[in-house]
Amino acid sequence: MKEFLGATTLSLVLAFALTAILGPMFISWLHKLKYGQEIREEGPQWHQKKSGTPTMGGIMFITGIGVAVLINMAITAIMGNLDDNIMKSVILFAIALGFGAIGFIDDYIKVVKKRNLGLRALQKFLLQLAFAAAYVVIMYCMGMLRCEVIIPFIRYSVALPIWLYIPFVMFVVVGTVNAVNLTDGLDGLASSVTVVTSLFFALYAFFAFNQTGISIFAMAVVGGLLGFLIYNKYPAKVFMGDTGSLFLGGAVALIAIDLNMPIYLIIVGFIYFAETLSVIMQTAYFKYTKKKYGEGRRIFKMTPIHHHFEMIGWKETKIVSVFSLVTLILCIIAFFA
After folding, report:
1. Which is nearest to 255 in space by CA: 88, 112, 85, 138?
2. Whole-Å CA distances, 222 to 12, 210, 227
3. Under a CB-based contact definition with an 8 Å cutoff, are residues 183 and 193 in contact?
4. Distance CA 248, CA 231 (A)
5. Contact by Cβ (8 Å): 204, 196
6. N or C end of the chain, less CB within 10 A?
7. Cα 266 to chain centroid, rounded
8. Contact (Cβ atoms closer than 8 angstroms) between residue 285 and residue 299
């Protein structure tokens, strides 16, 4: 217990402090570079006032998280307690950083090259697959790849053949990364929901599995995002961009998979998948009705679904609060499932 409290508290505090302290400098730097977000016209019209707000702010909390993880590893090594358990925190950060790099390239193309759609969908998909595969290869080579999946509520662990487990892992990682990316559409939304989700995994990792390394990384994510929320809450002074959202999606997915809990993402990450499902449903229904009736019809006023709630009169702060509360309730249910 003392080990958990010491290591995870240090991780939380370091990530929070670094992100919060470095925030003004990063925001000033992004302003000087004129790395402002361009708001797409098909979004809610009142979002146009956010145009020019600095993006790529995910660099802030990624830096804080990375420093927190590395300092924890260094202290553990000095104390002579460095093992595979602790090394997992570094591996998870490194692979999540790869997803953040994909987002950085995407943001750079949008902001600097002025191509508003960024990387092409196929380019982004293939890069995401590559980093998901890299995770599988690294874990396999280190002898830490466990082809098991825990079923919620019955807590029964199902062993999958490796030929099925590997594509399943890649599907979960890529799906979660893009789901978190879709959730990042309101001030503080993706940050707040992911704080709750990461805290759930940090606590579960230690109390259920005694996985201190995973707890260190997950708690660093919590700390980094809390520091980032100082500047990202409504009205946002900075956006995380794809740099941040792809990093977070990768982090959450990899933590869940490493704990053999990818199916739990359906519960604790319900908001992520509700956002994604709303887009899929809207697109499919629009195409179907256009083909059948000659004009496309919609289920929601706008997708992802957080925009639907905006269109019916909910304020951003209310949507963020409700979505975060729903996530908290589901995490509590999942913790005891």
Report:
1. 88
2. 7, 19, 9
3. yes
4. 17
5. no
6. N
7. 14
8. yes
Contact 140, 217 (CB under 8 A): no
Q: How many residues does the chain have?
A: 337
CB-based contacts of 182, cutoff 8 Å, min separation 6: 272, 275, 276, 279, 304
Residue whose pair of structure tokens reads 């001030």 in the numeric block? 187
- Each residue of 285-305: pLDDT tens digit? 999 999 888 888 999 999 999
Rounded Cα distance between 324 and 197, Å, is 9
Neighbours of 73 (CB within 10 A): 18
Q: Would you call the peptide bond into 304 cis, given omega within 30 degrees of 0 as the criterion? A: yes
Q: Give 90-121 as a DSSP string.
A: HHHHHHHHHHHHHHHHHHHHHHTS--TT-S-H
Give, to the nearest 10 degrees, the angle between helix 189-209 and helix 212-232.
160
* Domain positions in the chain: 2-335
Q: Is the pLDDT of residue 2 over 80?
A: no
How many whole angstroms separate alpha carbon 96 and alpha carbon 151?
25
User: pLDDT tier at 73 (50, 70, 90 boundaries)?
Assistant: confident
**What does residue 226 show for φ and ψ, rounded to 5 degrees?**
-65, -40
The pair of three-digit structure tokens given for residue 138, joined into one six-digit string: 């690294």
